[in-house]
Amino acid sequence: MLRALTVAALAFSAGLTSAASPAFAAGDAAAGEAVYQSACARCHRSVERIVPLFAGQDASATAAYLDRFLADHKAPDASSRADLIAYLLKVSGL
Ligand code: HEC
Question: Which of 42, 74, 90 has most ligand 1 atoms within 8 Å of CB, for mutation?
Answer without folding.
Answer: 74
